[in-house]
Amino acid sequence: MGLLGSLGESLYNAIRRFLGSPIADEKAIKELLREIQRALLQADVNVNLVLNLSKNVEEKAFKEKIPLGISRKDYVLKIVYDELVKLMGGENPVRIEIKPAKPWVMMLVGIQGSGKTTSAVKIAKFLSKRGSKVALVCADTYRPAAYHQLKQLADMVGIPVYGNLNSKDSLDFLYNTLIDNPTIVIELQAHTDCRGGDDHNQKLSQRRAQSCVDYLISKGIPAERMKAVGYGEGVPKMEGLECDAISNLSTQEEQEAAHQKNRRTQFIVLNFDYVPKDN
User: Fold this and answer.
1) Would you say the pTM of this structure is higher than 0.70?
2) pLDDT given for residue 164 in this prediction
């Protein structure tokens, strides 16, 4: 389940528990808000936005007069719905206005696993169908195989991709290492930061490790020489980068830098005993 799927499920469960409470009193409403806060913060929503949403819901739920013919529970849920819609940008979708005969750039920014790669390709296909000449540029120079994942999807819909294959993103160094050392067997280990649910991060890290293996297989490296393992958020890069330690850092900049260190893919050598089939 993706990050947005996890958020949706958490919000659904919070509302379901609220609907199951005997009465919509102050205690039940505050418990609902605590669960919504937890869900939004786990989805990496800015803490100030979360607190502002909670404050608005509380003020309206406790101070406004409930309209005739509607229960307190339904009224509270309507307030929550309206505030969530406002948080997500409002009911009117943002239109992509492309000025003809003029270069136009769109940058997608988001946390890990939020769907930037697939969204970029979908938007490119959408614009291409409407007559625009579209290209994609991979600006992720940190995550291994980011360029190759983007190109694999873009090739399926005929969208050209540009990027720096010689950056840290490239797996060519590892490919050359495997070629120069034909008897080593490696484990590709992918890790994530603490944002998102445990299950989501575990699956995300496994997909990323496997994408590296798939790329190396496409280059001719035998599959039996590589093992893809996703560790999720459970194995921080070093002491002091555990989830609890990061949450205690004083500024958002420090927290983001620590999260960045935990988002990585690396490899270790498992053994030196592989016998090439040609031999």
Assistant:
1) no
2) 59
Instruction: Report DSSP letters for 10-47, one per residue.
Output: HHHHHHHHHHHSSS--HHHHHHHHHHHHHHHHHTT--H
pLDDT in tens, 238-262: 667 777 777 777 787 777 777 777 7
The rounded distance, in Å, linking the Cα atoms of 219 and 99 is 41
Task: Give the integer Cα–Cα distance in Å for 72 and 27.
Answer: 13
Q: Are 195 and 259 in contact (CB under 8 A)?
A: yes
Q: What angle, 0 to 180 degrees and rounded to 10, lies between the N-to-C axes of helices 146-156 and 198-218?
A: 80
Percentage helix, strand, coil for the chain under 3-state DSSP, each rounded to 5: 50, 10, 40
Query: What is the bridge-based pairing of β-strands 264-271 and 185-191?
Result: antiparallel
The answer as to whether 39 is a domain residue is yes
Contacts of 97 (CB under 8 A, 6+ apart): none
CA distances from 206 to 120, 174, 201, 271 (A): 22, 18, 9, 21
Alpha carbon 167 to its chain centroid, in Å, reads 22
3 state SS of 104? coil
Name the pLDDT band for 215 (thresholds 50, 70, 90): confident
State whether 178 and 262 are in the same domain: yes
Q: What is the pLDDT of residues 145-190, one digit of tens each?
A: 677 778 778 888 888 887 655 444 457 778 888 888 888 899 998 8
Confirm if 259 and 240 have CB atoms less than 8 A apart: no
**CATH number for position 22:** 1.20.120.140
**Which amino acid is present at 225?**
R
Range of the domain at 7: 3-87
Q: Looking at per-residue confidence, does 134 or 265 come out higher?
A: 134
